[in-house]
Amino acid sequence: MRPILMKGHERPLTFLKYNRDGDLLFSCAKDHTPTVWFADNGERLGTYRGHNGAVWSCDVSRDSLRLVTASADQTAKLWNVQTGAQLFSFNFGSPARSVDFSVGDKLAVITTDPFMELSSAIHVKRIAKDPSEQIGESVLVIKGPQGRINRAVWGPLNKTIISAGEDAVIRIWDSETGKLLEESDKENGHRKTITSLCKSADGSHFLTGSLDKSAKLWDIRSLTLIKTYVTERPVNAVAMSPLLDHVVLGGGQDASAVTTTDHRAGKFEAKFFDKILQEEIGGVKGHFGPINALAFNPDGKSFSSGGEDGYVRLHHFDADYFNIKI
Amino acid sequence: MADVLIEEMASRLGIDLNQVDWDSIKLPKGEDFGIKSDDEDLREDDPLEFEEGFGNIIVVDNLPQVPKEKFEKLEGVIRKIYSQIGVIKEDGLWMPVDPATEKTLGYCFIEYNTPQEAQLAREKTNGYKLDKSHIFSVNMFDDIEKFMKVPDEWAPPESNPYTPGENLQQWLTDAKARDQFVIRSASDTEVLWNDARHLKPDPVYKRAYWTESFVQWSPLGTYLATIHRQGAAVWGGASAFNRLMRYAHPMVKLIDFSPGEKYLVTYSSHEPSNPRDTHMVVLNIFDVRTGKVMRDFKGSADEFAVGGTGGVTGVSWPVFRWAGGRDDKYFARIGKNVISVYEAETFSLIDKKSIKVENVMDFSWSPTDPILALFVPEIGNQPARVSLIQIPSKEELRQKNLFSVSDCKIYWQSNGEYLSVQVDRYTKTKKSTYTGFELFRIKERDIPIEVLELENKNDKIIAFAWEPKGHRFAVIHGENPRPDVSFYTMRTTHNTGRVSKLTTLKSKQANALYWSPAGRYIILAGLKGLNGQLEFYNVDELETMATAEHFMATDIEWDPTGRYVATSVTSVHEMENGFNIWSFNGKLLYRILKDHFFQLSWRPRPPSLLSPEKEEEIAKNLKKYSKKYEAEDQDVSMLLSEQDREKRKMLKDEWDRWVSEWKRLHEEEGSERQMLRDGEASDQEEEEYEDKEVEVEELLDVTEEVISFDYEQD
């Protein structure tokens, strides 16, 4: 089917997130307003106004009532999904990069960038049921990794936090004590900045994408490397189909080199790989800039991609897709 | 034993060896703890790298022995002689005096700024007559020690017992008749088999930092040459790549094998000590097997920068061009108004003099015979000229005068049967040029020449290429980006000896021609600006076999048998680096991506030992021979699909194990998760979505009824 082109952002996209029911799609971009769309027809529902910098990431609660966003304006904000009202603002001394709600939505993990003399950090915040009782204090702050932490997510039963970033190392932390439990080794691990990380639907494994032109699939409990997917481009975004054994990688060269190369040289395609055989199945073209964000609808029947070009492209799969055999 | 000593020492000093970061330890300069580096012996016979040594000092012997009063006068004389040649260092002249007699000892030391100057001084003043009884004997200071060591009595040299060498042609005996190629990417150099049946390369040998700039196969494929700061080395052998010989040549930049791989020419260019001087050029010709320098050439870069099409700005490589054929008999180089032809037997000029040709611009050897083709441009009233000269007789076989010529290019057919001279001529207004070809039939009596002009005379010639071993040639002509490609043959049906056109392909995206080494097939390639368009064309049938694209491709190379083609994207581009291997008819076999990809070269094969008659016979009965190989191919493909299936099954099983493990853990954690979600039983709906169509048929009740049936008619 023809993809639905969603115009609404004025700057490159940074992150995409579906709610659990798969009827809403939240998009973040370098402009200051996260936007919510109907995941079915791409109609714009509304925006969340209040940030004063690029918005890097967001997460939506299981009941689709709360949205949390992380922004370069050094805040992470809680929103009422329905009204667009800002409920709370967590203030940091440096740009906030990634957010993730825990199972049960009572906790959120927020990472902040290194800034001035501050080093990067992982903050765990308690999310109050009643927004009026919300406080800004962190339950736990983890410091240690060098450079930016591009993504931090919760492990099974909120017992661990998995982080990955510029130092190309994946780390598993104890979410109670902040102790480092596991670390990916040099041999198996990525060689360059890890740009993206996404968990499987059941949270049992996760996929990381890196500028070293590969994506790797890991067991979330033991940090065992299970699969490696090799591509021709630096990987900016990764996603896993909840329905079929497919993974999608998006990327492209640096934004600075885009104008100097042929659009074909850019390969701004979303590449589909067979999750098990690690072989490329196909690609979805369309963006005229690198792909920065990818997300699968929880029903596995559509996915969306967000590019450096400022567009979100919403793709509903054709019937043929479900019959791919290799 | 050494280990034990180290441990003992460490424990005595209280050092924990496990804590030591060995990489951080830097040995003081010149200290090696008695462990000889592998490169050491090579450096010892470095003639030029004397920055720290005494290479810039000469010893002048047979000076008059003078008393104290005349010391200064003698010193003045010597200084005068030697400062003409180069700059003597401050305090660089030292004449020892016998403390007893206060007379000089009859020799002195002179230190120059550079070893080159010292070399020159030695060459120029050795044997200099100061007067009748004082003839200078000049030596390099470094050599003195060597001479001192010469034993007084002659002893017969020890002869080493003969040890049979490895079979250097082992790779040709590959049971699957595969070809090898070498690739360089990042710091690795790797030799691989092209295993086209398995659709992947098969590793042979890999080594990091094997070479410091590039690698090069010898023309018959026996050796692989690597380039290092201290010189070149060749590798080869039956099992792995062993170093067979090293050729010391500091800062070597370029190398060239003679066609029969008997000799290796190395080239280096050195910064002059005086910035106004031109670069110094050093060329050595080595015997490949013994590693001995057969002859060296030194001079300023200007002397070597004459002639050749690229000769205006720098030295055109190779400086020495070898005559065709495998016997490596002659080599030649172009100079100002001369062509110097050397004989490899004596390494001296034929007849002790060069061939004088005023204003000669370019020359090239026939690939098979000792015949030189040379081009002299138009000067004043003298027309431009192309002539063929037989070596060693230096007799002119054929000559052709050409008028209003702007440029000339010479193309030999690989068997030396034909020669094509592409001539760019000015139009009458002299504002533009047009191109024609002069075609020489070398093997026919009196060497007839034919003129070929394209149908559209104004077409620009973009590329020209002879069919290897064949009688056809291809020309790309017309305007970019969509020029035409024409094929011509030198033979016609009636053997009338006229060149005739076979066909013209209109508006092709091509700017380069790559004939298969076996002829018949050609790739019309659009490289550079055309993004790597490839058209595989069969010239026998005059039909396109396939069109393809290797995006951004920079290089194309056929394997020596003409069965496969490699196209590669080298690191001139940042992206897409790697190579593709195609079959001769344009089917992509496999594709390998490598970052920082520099080079791919096929290992050449020596010419076939079969006679032409035998080859023809094989070609005739190809069906009979091919049966065996087809069966083998089939076996391999069966085996492959079998292996593939097994591999898939293994991966699938492994994956299923993971999934079931995850499922188990997920269920185990179910209750805890429910707690975290405030009692919401979430697992059921959280199960992975499954795309299943379920048809349910339920039988509720069966009753039988007899219905009475009557027609009601209105």
TrEMBL record, chain A:
CDD domains: WD40. GO terms for biological process: formation of cytoplasmic translation initiation complex. Gene3D superfamilies: YVTN repeat-like/Quinoprotein amine dehydrogenase. WD repeats lie at residues 6-47, 48-89, 142-183, 187-228, 284-314. Component of the eukaryotic translation initiation factor 3 (eIF-3) complex. Belongs to the WD repeat STRAP family. Belongs to the eIF-3 subunit I family. This is Eukaryotic translation initiation factor 3 subunit I. It comes from Nepenthes gracilis (Slender pitcher plant).
From TrEMBL, chain B:
Its main location: cytoplasm. InterPro entries: EIF3B, eIF3B_RRM, Nucleotide-bd_a/b_plait_sf, RBD_domain_sf, RRM_dom, TIF_beta_prop-like, WD40/YVTN_repeat-like_dom_sf. The keyword Membrane does not apply. One of its GO terms (cellular component) is eukaryotic translation initiation factor 3 complex. Residues 667-680 have a biased composition (Basic and acidic residues). Residues 667-695 are annotated as: Disordered. Residues 56-143 form the RRM domain. One of its GO terms (biological process) is formation of cytoplasmic translation initiation complex. One of its GO terms (molecular function) is translation initiation factor activity. Component of the eukaryotic translation initiation factor 3 (eIF-3) complex, which is involved in protein synthesis and, together with other initiation factors, stimulates binding of mRNA and methionyl-tRNAi to the 40S ribosome. Belongs to the eIF-3 subunit B family. PANTHER family: EUKARYOTIC TRANSLATION INITIATION FACTOR 3 EIF3 -RELATED, EUKARYOTIC TRANSLATION INITIATION FACTOR 3 SUBUNIT B. Component of the eukaryotic translation initiation factor 3 (eIF-3) complex. This is Eukaryotic translation initiation factor 3 subunit B. It comes from Nepenthes gracilis.
